[in-house]
Task: inverse folding
């Protein structure tokens, strides 16, 4: 029996809302609260200019659109051996079995809680341990934990978690690769104690790929980058399927 793992479902719900409204001029305020937090004062910033007709490529295979995820092996402890590849890229539609093989068996997968049948969540690396992390280059300011999502065995989405103080670094990196975001939203969120924190959400649309960067995700101290390949994500049933009756 396969174990079900939690998947920051409130964050996933927020990202689904943002993806649904990506073509609108503004992001829905429903997408600003972190898990367990309450939305605070809403301040809408005008969307930054990004002409899909002039700057964005037509398909996800063109250079400016993300075509997958680059990963890099980091080891804290001395090991007799390390993976044969220490830097690699997984393209969209990479098979889950192939990803596990290329990552030297370090990809831990399980069916996503609350997800559709055939939807898996995979962990490649966790801070403080040997593992695979999103590759932001040699001068990266920290380890960026990836969460890979597969549907019917094919890679279609990933999330990268980072400290909220790294948000500016992540955004600068994305802007160099993708240009200005199509949509920009600034607001505030509150934690359980009532303290307010700035929230920023940026959305890029490049061909069949949507990129969402949030300053605060499941926790007010953690940001999240979500990159989604829509030709697969749009085929996933959105209605909950439920679990097994306890009788």
Result:
């Amino acid at each position: 029996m396969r174990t079900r793992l939690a998947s920051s479902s409130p964050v996933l719900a927020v990202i689904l809302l943002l993806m649904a409204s990506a073509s609108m001029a503004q992001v829905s305020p429903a997408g600003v609260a972190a898990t367990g937090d309450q939305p605070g004062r809403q301040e809408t910033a005008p969307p930054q200019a990004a002409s899909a007709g002039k700057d964005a490529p037509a398909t996800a295979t063109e250079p400016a659109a993300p075509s997958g995820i680059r990963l890099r092996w980091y080891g804290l402890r001395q090991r007799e051996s390390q993976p044969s590849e220490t830097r690699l890229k997984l393209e969209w539609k990479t098979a889950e079995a192939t990803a596990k093989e290329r990552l030297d068996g370090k990809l831990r997968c399980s069916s996503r809680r609350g997800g559709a049948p055939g939807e898996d969540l995979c962990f490649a690396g966790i801070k403080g341990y040997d593992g695979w992390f999103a590759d932001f280059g040699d001068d990266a300011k920290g380890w960026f934990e990836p969460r890979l999502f597969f549907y019917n065995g094919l890679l279609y989405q990933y999330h990268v978690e980072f400290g909220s103080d790294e948000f500016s670094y992540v955004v600068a990196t994305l802007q160099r690769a993708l240009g200005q975001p199509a949509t920009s939203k600034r607001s505030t969120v509150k934690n359980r104690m009532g303290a307010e924190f700035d929230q920023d959400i940026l959305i890029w649309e490049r061909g069949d790929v949507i990129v969402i960067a949030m300053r605060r995700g499941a926790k007010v101290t953690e940001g999240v980058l979500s990159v989604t390949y829509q030709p697969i994500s749009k085929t996933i049933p959105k209605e909950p399927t439920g679990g097994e009756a306890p009788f």
Observations:
- The two ends are 18 Å apart (CA to CA).
- Residues 9-20 form the longest helix (12 residues).
- The helical segments are 9-20, 96-102, 167-178, 230-233.
